[in-house]
Write a structure and sequence with these properties.
Helix-turn-helix domain-containing protein; Multidrug-efflux Transporter Regulator, Chain: A, Domain 2; 3-stranded antiparallel sheet; alpha+beta; about 50% helix; 3 strands
Amino acid sequence: MSLMTVSQVAEFLGVQDVRVERLERESLLIAQEKDADGKPLFESSAVEKYKILAERLGGL
């Protein structure tokens, strides 16, 4: 299991960090755990699946 930070997810999805935080807050992208600063960490496979789904639904 490979974990990604908010900024890594934002770069992968091509969005801003605040958008990733909002997706997590709205439970559209589920964080696996929190880092030492309380920031969410996401499983890379879940982020890839979310990107595929978002593209099928019309984009991010």
